[in-house]
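Sorry to interrupt, but I need a hand with the structure work. Leave the record below and I will have a look:
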Amino acid sequence: MSHQFAAFASRLADAAGKAILPYYRQPLQVDSKGRTGVFDPVTVADRAAEAAIRELIERCWPNHGIIGEEYGTIRADAAYVWVIDPIDGTRAFMSGILSWGTLIGLLHHGEPVLGVLDQPVLAERFIGEMTGAVRRGPHSEARLKTRRGVALADATIWASSTITTKPELFARVQRLAGQARMLRYGSDCMAMAMLAEGHIDAVIETGLEIYDIAAQIPIVTGAGGIITALDGSTALHAGSILATGDRRLHQAIRRVMNEPGAHSR
């Protein structure tokens, strides 16, 4: 991956953070994008961040495609396509909790090649390519490396709270609770960053769109982890995913979840 794209992705994250921070822990009007009875929040900060990212892409790389959560898709058949979730974890953002972040991914001919997860309040940025990943903080930079060789009995697992709304999948994930050291619900994108940094051993998420996962794949893979759909297939277009620090734990978790049980995607 060209260094210029990684540097440009950081410029995009800078622009998003500048747009978001004035709204954090401030009174907010929150709208719902969901159908009747389903709360799917969006704030002015979400929209401002994506608008800032899109404006910069259009100005610097007008031949690139864009897939964004708030403003849709243009030039999806371009060789390079940027995939944007301006605030992954809007519920956390509007609650003043620091589990949210900006996700910026880059696809090349449909495959994820670069990912950025930016947490502007903490001034932490996680940058991944398929061959390596780093965390840049306010005073240092460190290579990301997943924790490996952890048995299921010693594993720390985080799962998205949306899993609890899907009874069959919830039952499958709950099987892990009795076999893992710890299983917690409520992860946003920072859980995946902590997996890449070696603090969490597995992350299970459901209800995903491409903009929720495109940036995460290079970060997790670059840190030495594995991320797939729950059935083991490609994660990019999967609604439900499993990410782990290594393949052995990945197989162990899938084994527990799948005996017996139908696949959830």
Remarks:
- The chain has two domains: 3-143, 152-257.
- The two ends are 30 Å apart (CA to CA).
- Confidence is low (pLDDT under 50) at residues 261-265.
- DSSP finds eight helices and 15 strands in the chain.
